[in-house]
Amino acid sequence: MFDILTVLPARKKMSPSGWVSFNAVCCTHNGETKDKRSRGGVKVDGHNWSYHCFNCGYKASFKLGRTLGLRARKLLDWLGVDSGTIGAINLESLKHKDIAQLLEDKNKSKQDKIKFNSKTLPDELELLKSTDNKFKDYLQSRSIDPDSYPFMISPNEKGRKNNRIVVPYTYDGLVVGWSARFLDNRTPKYINEQQPGYVFGVDLQQDHWTQCIVVEGLFDALSINALAVLHNTISEKQAKVIKRLQRDIVVVPDQDKSGLELINRAIKLGWSVSIPNWEEDIKDVNDAVKRYGRLGTLITIIQAKETSKIKIELAKRKLTKRIKWQQNIQ
């Protein structure tokens, strides 16, 4: 079985507590300066191991009988382990997965599974058709393809119901709620049927994606196939839903006062944050997509991604100054 100690840098030392310390390989990948003080540490327990960097805070671990998680795969890659060896580690590890472990995983999976109640959409709704120009024009004005999601309308209803687009909320393929966006200028603009802890866009994520982008608004998410928490913070249940995707998480807040709260929450959760240097009149992801296009927006998000808490705080401080300046000139 693979021994992580064989791929550690040559200069390393063992502490009395069992930690093997060496110059951490993760820091430069996480926005920190190169470690020269042996702040990285591995502790081995049989075939199992844990890694902790006391410089940038990066953590990873491996347990025999389980496959390598994303963070562990990244660490091994930084240590120079090739992808073929990483694949072989996973295969060898699974050979040691005994019946007791399988039962433990099965029971844990049942306990951890997050469920939402199935909901029925209003009877009057029907799918948006190619001839429904008013609604298609609205979606296209927000740079959203009308055919990219099962948008619904109620053209035979009277009053405001005749002038709305309904976005079904789904989770594991089930309808669990919905949001109605009215196209007139009256308030409220939105009416939502939303269960606590729900995150929009989980069903939009592809299995081969290694990252997921978390935004505030529904149309922000629809613009780039992101996750939307549908307000300016992230509840514990929402965090659990997002973590279960087992991907790198990048939070993109609205560039206004409410977005500052989302940044604070992302920092507390230890997630990456991206605050792109968009033009001053662009407040959110959907605004950016309308200006730069979907691909251009995604590029700006990835380029501005920060994993270092210090750098996130600096970007937040810069955004705060910009928001205050804009408020003063209004």
- The helix content is 25-40%
Give unreliable regions as ranges. none
H/E topology pattern: EEEEEHHHEHEEEEEHEHEHEHEH
Q: Tally the helices.
A: 9
CATH topology of the largest domain: Dna Topoisomerase Vi A Subunit, Chain: A, domain 2
Tally of DSSP β-strands: 15
Report on this model:
The chain is of the alpha+beta class. The protein has 3 domains: 4-112, no CATH class; 114-195, DNA primase DNAg catalytic core, N-terminal domain; 199-330, 3-Layer(aba) Sandwich (Dna Topoisomerase Vi A Subunit, Chain: A, domain 2), CATH 3.40.1360.10. It contains 9 helices and 15 strands. Strands 1-2-3-4-5 form a 5-stranded antiparallel sheet. The protein is globular and about 75 Å long. The termini are far apart. The mean pLDDT is 89.
What would you say about this model in short?
This protein has helices spanning 70-78, 83-95, 99-112, 133-141, 218-224, 236-243, 257-269, 285-303, 309-329, and strands at 12-14, 19-22, 40-45, 48-53, 59-62, 126-127, 152-153, 164-171, 174-182, 190-193, 211-215, 227-228, 248-251, 272-274, 305-306.
Secondary structure topology:
Elements lengths: L11 E3 L4 E4 L17 E6 L2 E6 L5 E4 L7 H9 L4 H13 L3 H14 L13 E2 L5 H9 L10 E2 L10 E8 L2 E9 L7 E4 L17 E5 L2 H7 L2 E2 L7 H8 L4 E4 L5 H13 L2 E3 L10 H19 L1 E2 L2 H21 L1
Parallel strand pairs: 11-12, 11-13, 13-14
Antiparallel strand pairs: 1-2, 2-3, 3-4, 4-5, 6-7, 8-9, 9-10, 14-15
Helix pairs in contact: 5-8, 7-9
Features:
330 residues, alpha+beta, Dna Topoisomerase Vi A Subunit, Chain: A, domain 2, five-stranded antiparallel β-sheet, five-stranded mixed β-sheet, 9 helices, 15 strands
